[in-house]
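Exam revision sheet. Question 4 asks you to relate a sequence to its structure. Input first:
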Amino acid sequence: MSLIFSVLMLLLRVIELVLIFNTHTIRVTFQEVIGFSLFDDFNWILYFLGLLFILHVITSLVSVRFAKRFTQIWLVIALLAQTALIFYFLKTLQPLGKDLFAYSIVDIILTVRSSGQLNATTIVGGLLVCTALFLIFNFANKYLVFNTKPALVFTITMYWFLIFFYFIPVTDSDKLDEIKTNIQLNKSRYLSEQAFDYLVYKDEYYFDFYLRELNDSLYVKKEYIDPDYPFLYTADYPDVLSPYFDSLSTSPDIVFVLIESLGKAYSGKDAYLGSFTPFLDSLEKHSLVWTNAISSTGRTFGILPGLFAGLPYGERGFLELYEDFPPHQSLLSVLHNNGYSSSFFIGTDISFDHEKEFLEYAGVSEIVDIKSFDPKYKKMPSNSGFSWGYGDKETFSNGLSLFPKNDGMPHVGIFQTITSHDPYLVPEPEFYSKKFEDHLVNYLNLPDGKKMEYRDYKNIYMTILYADDAVKDFITAYSKKPEFANTIFVFTGDHRLPEIPMASRIDRFHVPLIIYSPLIKRPSYFKGMVSHFEVTPSLLAFLKAQLGIQIPEQKTWMGQVMDTSRVFQSKIAMPLMRNKSQLMEYLNGEYFLSDDQLFVITDGLNIDPIEDQSLRNKLTGEFEDFKNKNNYIIQTRKLLPVE
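Answer key, structure tokens:
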């Protein structure tokens, strides 16, 4: 049975590689990855079979027949798990790790249903595969009987393969190419190691904090004041936005547009894949634009706590602490205390990722989600009978019927989109199919030989074009309202989508960040590196300088201030959470630590590996200090003292 299992696992590897190279346009070749892929598979196969052998021997002491059935069941489960993990990787180009444990069963089912993978065909197919595997293993038990000599030959041969692959040299480029490394991983081995790390080490922390600023070159000097509250500090944030605005006479409305999966790679000036957001591109010319902006997380779960409060991550993202949020402040709560009302609009279920609880804690007065849409609106198309909800155009249209309110109060409006999300089914597919082809020719000016690379991801790019059109309709309609003249708009993405291969390890976080307003007098592009963490303190400092709003003296948000440098520089320091439960990246200044590898960041957020052990140790120490504080917050909830 072990021999049959090994052959099937290696066959799955070949199928996996064929599917990857037929589905995605990537920089590596089949020949470059096949050797190390088989090496990783052999490692996992022998490790798994070794563990299973121990259990087989123990159960055979009770019953040999039961032991065979027990082993068969686990071999079938292992093959099915590997198959499922391969299909997940084929979709996302990311191996599934400890982020699996960050979602509830309900959220996982919703996500799988939305992708169209959970249907009668896959269920029946899975049952047929299980039956076939049991028949194969029964055949092996009955007819493939080996004596000692052939068994030794098989064993020695497999170990020779391991020895052969073990001594193949691994170059630095092999280690640093994330896509290549991810392809070579045995997906079952990776998930098992991640699960072990999550289950065994997740609760560890040491009560030993360095309450000091990380780097004297950072913009804001933070004075940490209480070791019982390691994120608590006092600081004066400079107003960096006023030089670019007309003087404010009244409190402006502020509108945030959070666009699902909008990465800098395919939006805005210098997008290396070419921009698929022509309207946002035109808006940039009248805006303040940060070309080197990053999100705080590689998935949607971080957009609200990162952008509006600069909060630590908790174990699986701050929103997962919803049952007992650590006391905290946010842009929304501070503005609420200064006479603002607030509204939030989304086309899907607000309960997903527990956004509702965060917004309610912040005092948002109006929350509109999938349950609150006018019946005249039609939901997005689906390929499985399940839809995430309403598309971006419907979300904006429905929201504009309710916002802004003409009641004499200043308002904050938040619009969060969903269409540019897996399964990437765009409304009006025929129209956007034609628009996609026209965009390749007339906007990107691509040669014929280059177009095929983009057509491999046509459905994805169509949803980005659709999202851009939705924003255009939104701004066009909003500009006809009298409140438009005194409104500040903030556009950003929650993360870069993973399905199109990424250029580097920081690429998943690289997003557009645009502030647009009729109040802007000096539209500008900035190259100073910023993150979502910098938005809240910068806007509050601006409103304080212009209008005298009250800001809490004690703060916990982790951001610095938005850098308006015209040349590239980085004066921020922050951890980055790749996926839920995957806190693996940290940056300080122009240096970036990822998976214990050190990089230097340059303009465009390009990263290059460097060797500097003392600098690596410094960043590693700072990163570990943050994780220590982060774990302390999880267990004590001591983020902000309650008055």
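Marking note for examiners. The mean pLDDT is 88.
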